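Margin note from the TA: students keep mixing up input and output lines. Inputs are the sequences; the output is the structure of the whole complex. Example:
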Amino acid sequence: MHGPLNRMRLTKLLVTSALLVVVPLVAAHAQRGPIPRTASGKPDFNGIWQALGNAHYDVEPHSARGAMAWRPGPVVPVPAKEVVALGAVGAVPSGMGIVVGGQIPYTPAALVRKKENLAQWLTRDPEIKCFLPGVPRATYMPFPFQIVQSDRAFFIAYEYAGALRNIYLKDPGPPQVDSWMGQSVGAWDGDSFVVTANGFNAESWFDRAGNHHSEALKVVERYTMIGPDHIQYEATMEDPQTFTRTWTIRLPLYRHVNPDARLGQFKCVEFVEELMYGHLRKTPLKP
Amino acid sequence: MRKTYSILVGGGLLLLSATAPLWAHHAFGAEFDPNAPIRLRGKVVRLEWVNPHAWIHIEVKNKAGVSEVWMVEGGTPNTLLRRGLTRQSLTFGTELIVDGYQTKDHSLKRANGRDVTFSDGRKAFLGSSGTGAPRDGRDPNERVKKPPTSR
Amino acid sequence: MRLHIMIQFASGLAAAWAPGVAHAQAAAPTKPQASWTVPRTPDGRPDLQGNWSNATLTSFERPVGLPLVLTKAQVAQLEKVRSDTIEKLGQRSDPNRTAPPVGGDGSTGAAGNVGGYNYFWIDAGDHIAVVNGEPRSSMITNPPNGRVPPLTPAGRARQAERFKRLRQFGEYDNPENRPLAERCLMSFGSNAGPPMLPNYFYNNNYTIVQTPDHVMIMTEMVHDVRIIRLEGGERLPPNVRPWMGDSHGRWEGDTLVVETTNFHPSQLVAFTTSYNAAFFGTSDSLRIVERFTRVDEHTILYRFTVDDPATFTQLWSGELPFLAMDDLVYEYACHEANYAMSNVLSGARAEERKAASRKSARKPKP
């Protein structure tokens, strides 16, 4: 079928087909096919996921910087002697941040504490000692995590430090004790899984930049699949002892799509024994 | 925890021990000094409801009459949580009597809570009434756990 | 696609309402044992999910002179001894008591002559394990004498070599010389295993979550997670040896079978069960096979087989029940507040300094 009339039809067909492809892509740019669902019709989050980017260094927007611990230098500050040997490996990459609105709304006293944390990062950051990461830091650590979801349970196993969260589908009541990973209760809001977490201790940080909270912290997370291999993750922090209002982080989580993907193991406690207990050896190593 | 007991069962000896497996998680003998016994009487000023050991901080008066705070080592709080007790079960200012032994490092004011009781001798975390045995049902504040029934 | 989802939702809803032990649900009405059917997941497998405890009075190996199956009278006597002890240890103390004796209070085992701590911190299990209606005197059932079989010469040599390596250090010289549990690397005994065995102290609790292609088992001590893949997945190469090994599972009828290899070399060295060092001589090729069968509303029958012909003169195996636990599993963050580790090391250093100064005090002055 060739000829001017058919060519016009062909062109129309091509344009329409292109629009059929382009419009859905533009309109819902993240909708790349139907999301997997469980037998009961809920979005199926089972799988291995990981955040990209550099929020684990600093959840606020930041330029690249030379180190996470500093000392005065002849011209400008230089990396602290404990970290200078790491060179570029110890540097901090830039990041657009994940805080909606850019800045964490600290109270004045809490901002002072954040700056102290930053200045004393080496002794204060719980990650250095392989302490549990807390929530939401666990989500965007540079390690994958695995969601194991059935109709009766929603469990998250994090590779970093073997941290874990059992997200209860039925509220057991207020947390009876403070913990590093808090107590989480989850419920469905349409196709979003909404988790309310509290019962945190005051020990964990949000990143390697000294951002902190108190025991009053409450985190509300939303997990929404925006495609079969992407979760839109949001977490809203409420902590009147630390922040002047609630604030939210937002970032995508990416599925490990390799069919052989599996969670690795990073039980780092033994990696920090020299750091934490080396001075108590019978014969400590020479400095 | 302090008793090894055995009974003769049939022709054999069944050793039932509430004490150590061969290689215990840590031997208390590694941490505390049997030659440094202590008896403390003081008020609770802080509770660390942590694993592997809870720590009860009590403020006592030393021989010179000066206040000092001692840390008393307990067990896993998870056991108490499942019996319905929480750190709110032991309020600040409650007076406790503790006997035990100081850490081998005598620069530390820390001791094992060999026996932690209220000032009238009742065990500290056993509930506020009843004979003291867990789950005897006599403590209205103690949540009685449903025992598994496999038989 | 919408219709497909609706059908899935309806069948899922039906499955969710099937009888099962969810700790939030009311107890199902009691029925005669014969008519009990195993609750199933939406994909038709026996439902192993929930919180479970393997705490028990029954020991790992059989005490000499006892048969596998205890009589009712024996069970009653053993359980009464335990409950009497609990009652006794809960009695009121003398408020006028003095400090315990100098030189120690004579307590043995982990209490370490300093009396440990009160029994109210302990939850060791107060029932004899019952399997198929039989109260058991040991977990080990094969060999028939209920004891770990003899080691091969290679196994004995490995044991000896490991002891030798350990003994070149004083037991308090370095953090690496302390038991895994004291370092907060793993639980005491073999809670996470595999095999997953009670520690006879507390927190012998597990959470199981199950999907069509994975089973997740979380051990309360030390918040250890085993993720067992059911379909495909390559075994790890021989040089990648994680704690708790590499586990792969499959269903055989209504039994979940899990095979684990690639054990972490330090777990082998320190891999002690509650009353013996059964795994201390094991080789790199140790293979543990576990079987999980839901046998009634409240019980998973857990069976394990130890396969290491380089170490043991035969396959050996055991079984114990995991009982449904109507309670929460709590966070066991161990390393984060591990005062004990620094107390133990600083204590040893303090004693060495004391001994050294006593020694130099005795030296004649120049």
